[in-house]
Amino acid sequence: MLAFLRVALLLPCLTAAAAQAQQFGFVTDINRTTIDWPGWVWSGQSTPGGYGRKFAVLNGRILYQASTREEGDELWSSDGTTAGTSMLADIRPGPWSSRPQGFTVVGNRAFFQADDGAHGPELWVTDGTAKGTVMVADIRPGILGSEPRFLSPLGPGVVFAADDGSNGNEPWYSNGLASGTRLLKDVRPGPGGSSPNGCTTNAGGTRVFLQADDGTTGLEPWVTDGTAAGTVLLKDIRTGSQPSNAFAFRPLGPSKVLFQAHDGTNGPELWVSDGTTSGTIFVKDVDPGPGGGTSLINAAPLGSPPTRWVFQGHDAKVGHEYFVTDGTAAGTYLLADINPGTASGASGAMCTNPAGTRVAMSAFDGKTYQIWTTDGTAKGTRVFAAYVGELWPMELLDDGTGRIWFAGRNLVAGAGSSPA
Predict the structure, then answer these.
(1) Those residues with Cβ within 8 angstroms of residue 354's Cβ, 6 or more apart along the chain or in another chain
(2) Backbone φ/ψ region at 55: left (φ over 0), alpha (ψ -120 to 50), beta
(3) What does the angle CA 189 – CA 250 – CA 263 come to, to the nearest 5 degrees?
(4) N or C: which end of the chain has fewer CB within 10 A?
């Protein structure tokens, strides 16, 4: 099905009736000639570790990727008004695209990946001005580029995965300067690389958790403090060469992270870690059996630092719905059966309000696409906007001013079905 991508503002409403009367406002038609855009967009809110993240808030403005026929996919900035929306930098001049993505804010700068057409996909940084938007380092000389991904803050810079053409895909660190950009550790020596991904910083900013394969244990959880000596295997959850595929790391409290992993018995389920082997433990089997019932890819935090996470889980009795966890078995439970019965109601897009007290979620009740909101309790989980036109909200972002942005996919009226 062809889709029309649009950016809109979902305005806060005091009552359900008000929500139905006025749900969203269109900001600006960046590409004034409508283009049919088949398929999907990367979900910045739900993608772990920054890969593909296409929205960020920098110095009070939205930083994002947008497309026009004349400039292609380039770096744009907006204050939420038509007059305040413009292209920040045409990194790859002409109709070709630089495809900026993976926006990761550190202080008053944002790191991201972009392709200027000469160096391939490399690490870039911006301070929110055209002059201050520059390539950090040409990690892999030539047009192939190092493809920096899974950017995650640590100190004054970021940990990320990149391929320099010699060591394969390995963890790197950069402080935003060419001289401060270095290979962190050759986890799997040789050109094959350890395939690090899902880099995520704990709330205290002291460690980055990631998935990597050293060639012996398979894809398992690793942790780094930004030094080679401090970059180590966290735990071999699925003993032997079989991978646990630990990923979707989410900060919990000041020092812990939640993540999902497969121990060979329970399927992909919830785990928690404090950065030590002994402190890396199984939380709960949400969907008993080898199938697994957890997807922390689709998750949003509550609290600052996060003390709970709302996530998309699966239970054979209710299908794919929204759950909440505090990192304990007792604190992990279903919030609402939005699409009653075994049919699924969770459709993935989520965001947290600025205070960290409520999470907005896109949903499907079996008839219409909706926005739901929750405070992390079953009683506090309710419909916010009962109908959002023909748009299926695919990406949500709270910009800190009480507004929720969403990117939606147009659907043919009456042809919608549960996306889960």
Answers:
(1) 398, 400, 401, 402
(2) beta
(3) 65
(4) N
Which residue(s) pair with 383 in the sheet? 372
Which of these, 420, 268, 250, 270, lies nearest to 349 by C-alpha position? 420
The structure tokens 């989410």 sit at 250
Q: Are 346 and 298 in contact (CB under 8 A)?
A: yes
- 282 within 8 A of 262, measured Cβ to Cβ: no
Q: Please, what sign has the CA dihedral across residues 126, 129, 132, 137?
A: positive
Tokens of 347: 């459709």
Of the candidates 388, 409, 407, which has an alpha carbon nearest to the alpha carbon of residue 396? 407
* Chain centroid to CA 272: 19
Instruction: Kindly state the average pLDDT of the residues 235-246.
Output: 93
Owner of token pair 């780094």: 224
Q: pLDDT digit string (tens) for 170-197?
A: 999 999 999 999 999 999 999 999 999 9
Q: Which amino acid belongs to residue 62?
A: I
Torsions phi, psi for 16 (to 5 deg)? -65, -35
Residue 373: Cβ within 10 Å count: 18
Q: How many other C-beta atoms lie within 10 A of the C-beta of residue 333?
A: 15
Q: Is the pLDDT of residue 361 over 60?
A: yes
Question: Could you read off the pLDDT of 284-334 as tens digits, one per residue?
Answer: 988 887 777 778 888 999 999 999 999 998 888 888 999 999 999 999 999
Instruction: Give the global pTM.
Output: 0.78
User: How far is CA 92 from each of CA 51, 134, 211, rounded to the nearest angstrom?
Assistant: 20, 12, 32
More confident residue, 140 or 33: 140
Q: Are strands 72-78 and 109-115 parallel, antiparallel or unpaired?
A: unpaired
Joined together, the tokens standing for residue 208 give 């980055």
- pLDDT value at residue 368: 83
For 280, residues 6+ apart whose C-beta sits below 8 A from its C-beta are 221, 234, 235, 237, 271, 272, 273, 274
SS3 content of the chain, % helix, strand, coil (to 5): 5, 45, 55
Burial of 39 (0-12, 13-18, 19+ CB in 10 A): exposed
Question: What is the Cα–Cα distance from 403 to 33, expressed in whole angstroms?
Answer: 27
Question: Alpha-carbon distance 180 to 221, whole Å?
Answer: 26
Using alpha carbons only, how large is the chain's radius of gyration in Å? 21
Question: Residue 404's pLDDT band (boundaries 50, 70, 90)?
Answer: low
pLDDT of residue 226: 94
